[in-house]
Design brief:
By secondary structure, the chain is of the alpha/beta class. It has one domain: Rossmann fold. The chain is built from 11 helices and 10 strands. Strands 6-7-8-3-9-10 form a 6-stranded mixed β-sheet. A hairpin with a 2-residue loop joins strand 4 and strand 5. Helix 3 crosses helix 4 and helix 3 packs parallel to helix 5. The longest helix is centred in the middle third of the chain and has 16 residues. The mean pLDDT is 92. It binds adenosine-5'-triphosphate and magnesium ion (MG). Adenosine-5'-triphosphate (ATP) binds next to helix 1. Adenosine-5'-triphosphate binds next to helix 1.
Length: 271
């Protein structure tokens, strides 16, 4: 059985908007998955089903064999950490430190370990100087990092990042890519919702393409990002390296994974 299984999931919001329309998909343990698709496609609604925050109107979602209807959201949350798209909907504590401590205490972490996890999280995300500050004074990018820090502090097995690169500068984005790689190498299952195809391209995840509440594409990054009609239909832009690859008259079998791969191919051809 897969770690995450959506079976014929339809979700209708209270106002009658159908945000998921008969979605079936599975994600295996230790997979790295990127979800792309136009605004309103249902990406956030989909990931909110993974920690049981939303329950399907029809169909079922099972996480590690547990139907999300049968397990408390608190228990699901121990294994599934979601950093939400809008940090203002997530942050609620009176200080940065307490924001991180809250979940740790909730999940039974104790004294020295709490301190160790807080230090790691603040250090990694460059937030040490704000430890005693209110999250309200943080900049948009810092707030976003605090949501990531507070999730990663408790070390969930499944990490869901909803638009993690929004508002992040170049260095922070690079660091974020590094942490995703690191987490993935330690065996985490990672799902990243993003409009930032350049960021996803560097990670080469499996890509799910969503459109109007349904999954319309699913496959390896290089394959899906090469399918221009599919991407255009879902209003997803194509990574620049893939566009460059398509513009070349002669080219290798696969799109370039990074700039240096593109460069060495082109230089080889020029000489
Ligand atoms: N709480 C809500 N109540 C009513 N409708 C909602 C709610 N949340 C989302 N919707 C609607 O559900 C649909 C899917 O929204 P969702 O937030 O899942 O899209 P998304 O793919 O994450 O979009 P974006 O790229 O803009 O973040 C949209 O039509 C949206 O208006
Ligand atoms: Mg969203």
């Amino acid at each position: 059985m897969s770690l995450i299984e959506f079976r014929d999931v339809t979700f209708v919001h209270q106002n009658g908007v159908k945000a998921l329309d008969d979605v079936s998909l599975s994600v295996e343990k230790q997979e790295l998955v990127g979800i792309v698709g136009e605004n309103g496609a249902g990406k956030t609604t989909l990931v909110k089903h993974i920690n049981g925050l939303l329950k399907p109107t029809r169909g079922s979602v099972t996480i590690d064999g547990n139907n999300t209807r049968d397990v408390s959201t608190a228990r699901l949350a121990r294994n599934v950490g979601i950093a939400f798209q809008n940090p203002d909907h997530q942050l609620f504590s009176d200080s940065v430190e307490n924001e991180i401590t809250f979940a740790l205490k909730n999940f039974g972490f104790e004294g020295a370990l709490i301190e160790q996890r807080i230090r790691w999280a603040l250090g990694f995300f460059g937030l040490e100087e704000y430890r005693k500050s209110s999250p309200l004074i943080l900049s948009g990018g810092e707030k976003k990092r605090l949501t990531l820090a507070s999730i990663l502090a408790w070390d969930p097995d499944v990490v869901v990042l909803d638009e993690p690169t929004v508002g992040q500068d170049a260095i922070q984005k690079e660091k974020l890519g590094e942490i995703v790689r690191l987490l993935h190498s330690t065996g985490k299952t990672i799902i990243i919702v993003s409009h930032d195809v350049e960021f996803l391209w560097t990670l080469q995840p499996r890509i799910l393409v969503m459109k109007q509440g349904g999954v319309v594409g699913d496959g390896p990054c290089a394959t899906v990002m090469h399918d221009r009609p599919l991407l255009e239909g879902a209003r997803v832009s194509q990574p620049q390296l893939v566009q460059l690859y398509d513009e070349l008259r002669t080219r290798p079998d696969q799109p370039f994974l990074d700039l240096s791969a593109a460069r060495s191919w082109i230089e080889k051809g020029a000489t």
